[in-house]
From TrEMBL:
Cofactor(s) annotated in UniProt: Zn(2+)
E.C. no: 3.5.2.3
Similarity section: Belongs to the metallo-dependent hydrolases superfamily. DHOase family. Class II DHOase subfamily.
GO biological process: 'de novo' pyrimidine nucleobase biosynthetic process; 'de novo' UMP biosynthetic process
Gene that encodes the chain: pyrC
Stated name of the protein: Dihydroorotase
UniProt GO molecular function: dihydroorotase activity; zinc ion binding
Cofactor note: Binds 2 Zn(2+) ions per subunit.
Binding site for substrate: H12, L13, R14, N38, H133, L217, H249, A261
Species whose genome carries this gene: Skermanella stibiiresistens SB22
Active site annotation, chain numbering: D245
Reactions listed under catalytic activity: (S)-dihydroorotate + H2O = N-carbamoyl-L-aspartate + H(+)
Domain Amidohydrolase-related: 8-308
Quaternary organization: Homodimer.
Protein task: Catalyzes the reversible cyclization of carbamoyl aspartate to dihydroorotate.
Length: 344
């Protein structure tokens, strides 16, 4: 199967040795990726984003044409002029909203959307997309309900307050989110879907014992939600596109009394997605999901090149080692998948 080269519209690359270890996997598959800004400290200025983009380019394998698309981490004190300038200069592709304390490295996130109303108005005017980690942080709300409640309490009102704002509802995990996005007819609301949320439901996190490497946020939900996500992805329709949310963490940080959230899918992301589409008899929609819908939403041209996947067994790496001695465990580590990316 040969399709236009895909893009990853939601990716964590980290920095330093980890960046160097994980980036080649993404660069081998994808033409571009939206790079998440939740570093320590977060990427909030044009200068920081330029430096981070340069570090990513430096870490690329020889000859790679992979393009990082940078994002700005939205904080309560965000400066609309700085954000607009970054967009104008082609440094910032989008802005990322983390509700404060919703997920990994979100302590600097927004505590009240009222604090950033001016920034959102400006983004609306200049056509700059807002990417949202869509979970409420109210501790009273059950962790499995946080995404659905976010739609009612935060997302719907936000879309109503800013009728021209382009929004990506990131890494959706519920039927409610898939239905909400599908119901929008304006074309200004998109959603990314990860590979792992198409494969696991919440029971997998506890199969035979607790499996910290399957813990991510938003947490995987019941089977009916996984099936709804698969229907959305394979529909091939406009608002749904590929975003792995590949989020590497050192094994020591995952296998802990308080393990952190994030699933590292980069090594075989395209193989996992291909298998999902093949299982559901929807390979004809794969290119739309992986390579066309995202660029259309962002107003970019699809990639010129192609990639080829063949029906042949491939083993997911057991472990990925960084130069500083840290190890990361890939999703489905050591398992055999039945689609293989042909390396050209
Ligand atoms: N998805 C995750 O569980 N973790 C991400 C943050 C995020 O995308 O929410 C990370 O940076 O590790
Ligand atoms: Zn997130
Ligand atoms: Zn993420």
């Amino acid at each position: 199967m040969t399709i236009r080269r895909p893009d990853d519209w939601h990716l964590h690359l980290r920095e330093g040795a980890m960046l160097k270890a994980v980036l080649p996997y993404t660069a081998a598959q994808f033409g571009r990726a939206i790079i998440m800004p939740n570093l320590k400290p977060p990427v909030t200025t044009v200068e920081q984003a330029k430096r981070y983009a340069a570090a990513i380019r430096d870490a690329l394998p020889e000859g790679s044409t992979f393009q990082p698309l940078m994002t700005c981490y939205l904080t309560d004190g965000a400066d609309a002029d700085e954000i607009a300038r970054g967009h104008e200069e082609g440094v910032f592709t989008a802005v990322k909203l983390y509700p404060a304390h919703a997920t990994t490295n979100s302590a600097h996130g927004v505590t009240d959307l009222g604090n950033v109303a001016g920034v959102l108005e400006r983004m609306e005017r200049i056509g700059m997309p807002l990417l949202i980690h869509g979970e409420v942080t109210d501790p009273e709300v059950d962790i499995f309900d946080r995404e659905a409640v976010f739609i009612e309490r935060v997302l719907s009102p936000l879309l109503a307050r800013h009728p021209g704002l382009k929004v990506v509802f990131e890494h959706i995990t519920t039927e409610e989110a898939a239905d909400f996005v599908a119901a929008d007819t304006s074309g200004r609301l998109g959603a990314t879907i990860t590979a792992h949320h198409l494969v696991i439901n919440r029971s997998h996190i506890f199969a035979g014992g607790i499996r910290p490497h399957l813990y991510c946020l938003p947490i995987a939900k019941r089977e009916r939600h996984r099936l709804a996500l698969r229907r959305a992805a394979i529909s091939g329709t406009g608002p749904f596109f590929l975003g792995t949310d590949s989020a590497p963490h050192a094994v020591t940080a995952k296998e802990s009394a308080c393990g952190c959230a994030g699933v590292f899918t980069a090594p075989t992301a395209m193989e996992v997605y291909a298998q999902v589409f093949a299982e559901d008899g929807a390979l004809d929609q794969f290119e739309a999901f992986a390579s066309l819908n995202g660029p259309r939403f962002y107003g970019l041209a699809p990639n010129e090149g192609t990639i080829t996947l063949e029906r042949a067994p491939v083993t997911v790496p057991e472990i990925v080692l960084a130069e500083d001695g840290e190890a990361v465990l890939p999703f489905q580590s050591g398992e055999t998948l039945n689609w293989r990316l042909k390396t050209s």
